[in-house]
Amino acid sequence: MNYFKMLIAYVRASLRAITRNPSSLVFGFVFPLIFLVIFGLIGGRSFKVTVGIIDAPQNPLNEVLSHVSSVEIVRGDESALHDKMIAGDLDAFLKIESAPEKRWNVSLYTTAGSSDGRAFSSMLQGITSDLNMKLLSIETPPVQITHEVLQVRPSRPIDFILPGQLGFILLSAGIFGSAYTWISLRERRVLKRLFVTPAPRSIFLIGEAVSRMILAAIQISVVIAVGHFVFDFTLIHGVWTYLSMVGVCVVALIVFLGFGMMVSNIAKTEQAVPPLANLMVMPQLMLSGAFFPITILPVWLQPICRALPLTHVNDALRGIATGNATWELMALCFGILIVWGIAVFGVTIKIFRWE
Amino acid sequence: MCVAGIYAYIYASHDERERTLNRKTIVEVKNLCKSYDKLEAVKSISFDVYEGEIFGLLGPNGAGKTTTLEILETLRPKSSGSVWIDGISLDENPNAIKRRIGVQLQESGYYPNLTLVEVCRLLAGLYQSDADPLALLKRVDLVDKAHVRVDKLSGGQKQRFSIATTLIHKPRVVFLDEPTVGLDPQARRNAWELIRTIRAEGATVVMTTHYLDEAELLCDRVGIIDEGKIIALDAPHTLIDHLLAGGFRREKPVREATLEDVFLHFTGKELREDA
User: Fold this and answer.
1) Which residues 6+ apart lie within 8 Å of B260 measured at CB?
2) Which of A182, A197, A238, A321 has minimal Cβ neighbours within 10 Å of its Cβ?
3) Which residues of B touch A199 (CB under 8 A)?
4) Which of B95, B101, B126 sits opposite A194 (nearest CB)?
5) Spatial separation of the C-alpha atoms in residues B76 and A244, rounded to whole Å
6) CB contact under 8 A, B108 and A16
7) Is A192 in the B-facing interface, judged by CB distances under 8 Å?
């Protein structure tokens, strides 16, 4: 008996069947790519403020501001700019008045609650202090700032959001995909028909897992490729980073496949699958930092978030992508996955029904 | 051999005589028992099936037909007794038995979203058979449906496909559990032809059915099961002769034709595939 050939025949059939199922394509490719495009576009917007300057005689500040790329200047008289500010077209406006002895008084107007206005205010402070020192011919000011940016966590939205999408793929492929497959194979007596063949039952278990892994690897590759080439997603060590991410995803998928098989055995009918599967998918999706960082959630929720497997998968994937994955981070991720794996498969083996 | 048996032997066709002379047992069931908790579903059943015959298991619902069949098919463990198929003991080597039998189950499904050819390829892979799916589908007249999904087939086509899948690995014995249930008279006749072809090509057929006209026409021998026991076992015409010899007479005189003959006379014998 050539078990490998049996496995290949099974995996081929299973992959064919999955790719013909519209919902697996929607959840596996369409949704993650839509999310990626939406968040990618949000992330692609760089900081830009629109500032009105009331027509004023020649002055040095005017000169400097017109060279700052993140400031778009609109000119006009006071009442016109005031109206634009109320309409929401301006983040701030400036009134520059000349005073005797080559001095200038600058009045800054922003609206309450405008974060872009606040950002421009501190920007203006910096620009003005540089300008003042230049005008006073001070070359070495007593307090000097040197600024160094440390890359400790993903700073760009795409580096945060893309690994979250991979988590979403793993969760839906693992839990929804496997729960539906197993219950329909069982309830429609497909398994029974397969059991009269000489293939051992483990072929069907391994076959289902392998075909899901192959499909998930393809989905993940598509999402990473689109993210990398279209939205400049960071792959710090190129192909190796990509392969490590796929590796983590495959291990995580095994745990989520276990969740799916557990659901298919708790559910008595096919109709009972969606609520049960959603119960495992939705809270995990919200609490694992797939779409937004868990640090914005209330403190009492954090321990729950930290206990979920997907949280650690997301952390590990983000770490690998940006080159910040420490051994501790990876050990924690795999440790949590192993603990969940043992728990989930322990329950599944106890309640598993072939018929 | 009883008088009726001799009578049946003398008047049997040449083929039938040939088969009776070279009786070789291919399925041997001895004192087979199956109980679930307190329910005894099968109570010490024994019967032999001879090579090359069509053997029918008849009986009312819940009599134990399907349980018996599923034990022979290696799907269900037996409580006691012994089973040999093609000389192999079920206890010693169920896997070798699986390779020698083809099984059609009652209302079994196929892997979802696959076409007929793809299902055949999957099963061929699991049986390690190099059967050509198209040649197989040609045998049951389904070549034009080769790339259609199984769930798009009509009842008769599904049943034919289901029988075809049992032949993928050229089995020695084919088990068919109610192969004609739910079929229209035309499709039933078509299925009978198919079953006869399987036998003609050298396989032994063991089937269950609720239709006694079908058993009478199709089966060389039948075993009637009730309440987990075999209560009669012989060729259909022998059983009928026995009953008549015991003084049985139908209440109404039998007519030369049945309503089914009328139906087929008006609607024709050709298979309807659009249903």
Assistant:
1) B185, B213
2) A238
3) 126
4) B126
5) 45
6) no
7) yes
The per-residue b/e assignment along A110-125, b for 16 or more CB within 10 angstroms, e otherwise, is beeebebbebbeebbe
Distance from CA of B25 to the nearest CA of A (A): 22
Q: State which residue of chain B sits closest to A6, comparing Cα positions.
A: B126
Answer yes or no: pTM beyond 0.80. no
A185 contact B CB<8A: yes
Q: Which among B101, B110, B125 is the nearest to A8, CB-wise? A: B125
Contact (Cβ atoms closer than 8 angstroms) between residue A84 and residue A52: yes
Candidate from A6, A16, A195 with C-beta closest to B114: A16
**ipTM, 2 dp:** 0.84
**pLDDT tens, residue order, chain A (355 aa):** 688 999 999 999 999 998 888 877 777 788 888 887 887 676 555 678 888 888 777 788 888 888 888 888 888 888 888 888 888 888 888 888 888 887 888 888 888 877 888 888 888 888 888 888 888 888 888 888 887 777 655 567 778 888 888 888 888 888 888 888 888 888 888 989 999 999 998 899 999 999 999 988 998 999 899 888 888 788 877 888 899 899 999 999 999 999 998 998 888 888 888 888 888 888 888 888 888 888 788 888 888 888 888 988 888 888 888 887 788 888 888 898 899 999 988 998 888 888 7
